[in-house]
């Protein structure tokens, strides 16, 4: 993870309590709660995942994979914040996916939230191949990805995102591998004021700590430029193995 991204995740950890994060959390997988199959859950590129925390709270066994120790340690601290006698089990794995081997399990739910857009579509095919071999009839895969309407794609900016998705891309990844589309939501919304305040503070910290620059005018202008037209534009989908 770059130093800039680390500063953002540190800030999110500092500013959002676990309780606040869980209040903001929406999980469409719960639509299929009654019909879901038994088995462990895995979240790949989990970060400080509210999915992991939700299922931990619900007494489930959850694997949390991330390539970054800060994220895994933060997630562990958040899990400790909500631990009760009913909590399940979280197995933390520091690994770079897809090179890292998946645990020898068949998963009931696979979460890929804000992860696939860091890979080319060709590499996403390899990722879904690997995951698919750890699923069975009834397994659900949830993805949240940046849509092609994302502002970085619209501005044709250079970035670390490798692919911006449309419905057809997701169908192409899942349907030939024996999945059916259960859920598709293309979401666009304005950021909250607290989100924008965090971005502003993030840009200040990047300037102070990475560039050793303290000019408030430059920082303010850069934050304004970054936030202009910056809406949340993502796709959430769920596919079920048939
Ligand atoms: C944008 S964050 C998403 C975190 C979380 N899933 C969410 O939706 O809030 C991406 C996460 O994936 C992790 N990551 C990036 N590349 C990875 C890889 N190849 N294997 C495992 N984790 C990776 C990063 O450390 C980071 O925590």
Task: Summarize this structure as a short list of keywords or feature phrases.
about 240 residues; alpha/beta; Rossmann fold; seven-stranded mixed sheet; 9 helices; 7 strands; globular; binds S-adenosylmethionine
Descriptive overview:
The protein is α/β, with parallel strands linked by helices and 242 residues long. The protein has one domain (17-190, 232-241): Rossmann fold. It has nine helices and seven strands, in the order H-H-E-H-E-H-E-E-H-E-H-H-E-H-H-E. The protein has helices at 3-15, 18-24, 50-57, 69-82, 121-132, 151-154, 167-174, 193-210, 216-227; strands at residues 41-44, 61-66, 89-94, 109-113, 140-146, 179-189, 232-241. Strand 2 (61-66), helix 4 and strand 3 form a beta-alpha-beta unit. The longest helix has 18 residues, at 193-210. The model has no long low-confidence stretch (mean pLDDT 95). The structure holds S-adenosylmethionine. S-adenosylmethionine binds at residues 1, 45-47, 49, 65-68, 71, 96-97, 113-115, 118. The site of S-adenosylmethionine (SAM) has 16 residues, from strand 2.
């Amino acid at each position: 993870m770059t130093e800039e991204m680390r500063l953002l995740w540190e800030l999110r950890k500092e500013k959002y309590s676990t309780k606040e994060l869980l209040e903001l959390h929406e999980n469409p997988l719960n639509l299929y709660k009654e019909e879901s199959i038994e088995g462990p859950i895995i979240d790949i590129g989990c970060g400080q995942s509210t999915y992991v925390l939700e299922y931990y709270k619900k007494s489930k066994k959850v694997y949390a994979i991330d390539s970054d120790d800060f994220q895994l340690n933060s997630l562990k601290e958040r899990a400790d914040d909500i631990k009760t006698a009913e909590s399940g089990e979280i197995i933390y794995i520091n690994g770079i996916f897809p090179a890292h081997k998946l645990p020898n399990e068949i998963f009931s739910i696979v979460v890929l939230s804000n992860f696939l857009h860091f890979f080319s579509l060709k590499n996403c095919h390899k990722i879904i191949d690997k995951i698919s071999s750890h699923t069975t009839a009834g397994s659900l895969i949830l993805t949240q990805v940046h849509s092609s309407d994302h502002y970085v794609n619209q501005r044709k900016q250079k970035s670390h995102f490798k692919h911006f998705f449309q419905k057809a891309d997701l169908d192409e990844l899942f349907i030939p591998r024996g999945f059916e589309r259960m859920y598709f939501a293309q979401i666009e919304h304005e950021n909250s004021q607290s989100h924008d305040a965090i971005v502003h503070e993030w840009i200040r910290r990047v300037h102070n700590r990475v560039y050793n620059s303290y000019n408030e005018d430059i920082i303010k202008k850069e934050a304004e430029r970054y936030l202009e037209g910056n809406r949340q534009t993502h796709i959430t989908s769920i596919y079920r193995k048939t």
